[in-house]
Each structure stands twice: as structure tokens, then as C-alpha cells.
Amino acid sequence: MRQVSHIFQYDTTHAMLGHPRVMTDKSHAATSADPPPDRGARARTYRLLLDHAMALVRHGQLVSVAEVAASAGVSRATAYRYFPSRAQLITAIVEESLGPVRSFEPAAADGRARLQELFDRTFPRFKEFEPQLRAALQLSLEHWARARAGTLQEEPFRRGHRIKILERAAAPLRRALGEDRFNGLLRALSIIYGIEPYVVLKDIWDASDAEVEATARWMADALIRAAVLDAGKSALTTVGAAIAAPARRRKAS
Q1: Cα separation, 130 vs 9, whole angstroms
Q2: How far apart are CA 225 and CA 228, in angstroms?
Q3: In the predicted model, what is the mean pLDDT of residues 78-95?
Q4: C-alpha 117: how far from its chain's center?
Q5: pLDDT at residue 28 in the model
């Protein structure tokens, strides 16, 4: 039996019949999936299903596992053995779209330069796989609304892999910024690193792909500069207080 995720208890019998069991785990860890089979008939079937899923999503459809099975010409039971839920299916689609980005290690030593490298590597893939990433966002929003209403009847799809991606790229800034400020920078960058700027700038501002990328880069650079400047001011304040303290003690004595 294929393991769905280490954070969920999941009834695969129900999943194969198209009736997933209600999830009770409230963890917000990002949804993850097992590595795909790498050889033989299982690998070919997995590839067939994933290729059809990618194509359906590219044509504007937030697909179900059953729809992918029908498109690929395989039984639902077979499809559910590979993708027991929509969360697992969309996770595989996103992994196919962004896999190289998730394992990318910038070459630069400087944190700002590493983040610039990451943006260089990532935004062309955001543009190429925009429909797939919008589908992931759509499923995440649907599951949030259903969970809030208490009507979610399938494994919830959780996003969040960008946290580790940004943390790895920005790591040299951690010491200079301090833990709290570094985490604050990651949170701010996570708003503009992903499909979200495409949704806002294209859907509201009718921006081009180039304009989306330029705006996101400008915002990222501004956020990094602000964090570094804030850290510098904090350090100066600390040094100033340390210098002034002996003088105050002498005056008091």
C-alpha cells in the first residue's frame, strides 16, 4: 500500500472508491507525496496519469482523480492507487512543475545575491507552469473554505514548500538580521515568491509576465534592504546604549 503522507491517517480503501475519509489532523505542514516509481509498468502508468493531469490543468480545469483516470483511459481504482486524493494529485503536479526549484542551491555566498539567483531560476518556471500553480492555489482556497465550514471530506491540500526554499537561499542573512527579523523577512518574501503576484498583477492590473517579474523583484529587493537597514539601526541603538550605560552609572555615583 502506498503511503499517502506521514502527517495523515488515511483510509485508502475509501479513497480508491472515490470516498475519502475525513481528515482529523490539524497540522499545517505542507502536503508531501512519496517519490514516483522509477521503472517498469508502475512508472509508465504514473507518467501517463501525470501527463494527462498536467494537460487538463493547462487547459483551465481543476481536475479530480476520476477525471484524470478517464482522460488517461485507466480505471478509477488504478488512478486512486497512485493518487489517493486531489491533494496528492495537485502535489504531484506542482512537484513536476517546480521540482528543480525545490532542490536548487544558489552558488553565491551573499544572501541578497542568493535570493536574486533564486528569483532568476524560479520566475521562468512560474510563467511556464502558471495554470498548474493557479490550480494549486484554487484547491488550497477551496479546502480552506470547506474546512472552515466543517464540510471538508478529503485530505486537505496544504501549501508551504516555499518556506524551506526561501530559508535556504536567504540563510547567510540570518546572522546579520537575527532570528526574529530573518523570519519576518521570509514571511514578507513568501507573499511575492509564488503564484500570488501573477494573480494580483495579471487579474487586477492586466500586467505582462515581464511586469510581474520586475515588480516582484523590486519588492524583494526593497524588503531585503529594509530588513538589513532595520538590523543596522537596531545594532547601533544597542551599541549606543552600551556606551551610555557606564556614563550614567558614573553620574549616578
Answers
A1: 31
A2: 5
A3: 96
A4: 18
A5: 62
